[in-house]
Predict the structure.
Amino acid sequence: MHSARRRAIIASCIAAAMVFAGIAQAGVEGDTIVLGAAVSKTGKYSTNGKHTMNGYDLAVERLNKMGGVEVAGKKYKLKIIYYDDESRGARGAQLAERLINQDGVKFMLGPYSSGLTKAMAPVTEKYKIPMVEANGASRSLFTKGYRYLFAVLSTSEQYLSVAIELAAERARQSGRRPSSLRVALAFENDPFSQDVRAGVLDDVKRFGMKIVVDGKLPRDLSDMKGILQKVKLVKPDILVVSGHSKGAALAIRQIAALKVDVPMLAMTHCDAAGIIEKYGKKAEFTLCASQWAPTLNYQDNVFGSAADFARAFKATYNYEPPYQAAESAAAVIIYADAFRRAGSFDTTKVRDALAATEMQTFYGNIKFDPSGKNIAKPMVLYQVQDGAYRVVAPTKWASSKLRFPTPRWSDR
């Protein structure tokens, strides 16, 4: 009896060990590499969550169509397990735990937004699970000492720096000192937007400019009339806005409704918000920070050029790709390259391969510093011109000349 009980206990232990081993190896199922992602299908980030998933899925489809990823002489396909984080950080962290502990995911793709990435990163770091993310730009993500977090995009403090630099450049060209410029700010109170604001403040200080309006967008991003009334009153030289897609749409709609005249308007998330499609001529002259543009001359062996990616994306999803989709597709390409170079699915080896990444994709150059930031790719600045996005800055990447100043509403 004692011997039988002992054998039963041993058998149970072996079974449990096999279950845990199965979970540990579930990052690969047969000839398929499994990636996990908690992304906003619902909630306030659902628009950009859709762009994120479309970018991930298009890259997976393209790589699989090309035969998959070769690892140690064997070809593997890719697939992604998705859950809806509902645009909530707590839910994102909970789903990261679920993907790792229940689904056995060993390789994570990031969510949309800096706030959700901040919520998930401690979880992936705790389990030493690599996470390649494309939509968490907050510079504070890269001050925590994380070793398993890698971001393909430029960090948030860089987003609208190019707009402040462009304003200073135009001031000099017109015979004014950059320090004479007056700046109005309208920012959402979330980690990403506040980091963008911090970068703008650094540049404003560097040029000696003056902040004349420092407005905070409401939590639900429903109204900014109070801020815009102040802008009308003090007449700044440039208005800078950051509030994700909903904030961008709000700004264009209410600036037009109130007929707010400002020589230069610079924003984040213009293309993701669809300001051209939704607001037509009301969006003209708006400057839009972007991680990427289809006119850039980057190339890779998966999609080809930036323009090739844009054509493939539009053919698949029937809309022009915002940069959120492009950077998300790039994250999958970076993972595929790391798997190939690691020659293994050991998470430490894959992590080390990611850390050593130095390559060009259709989205841009990728090289990670020790904190996991991509230090090889600059931001660009679009302007809405004749119903299209045209790159106007930095000058090196510009495809069109800046139209400045923005005409008064009464003259349009």
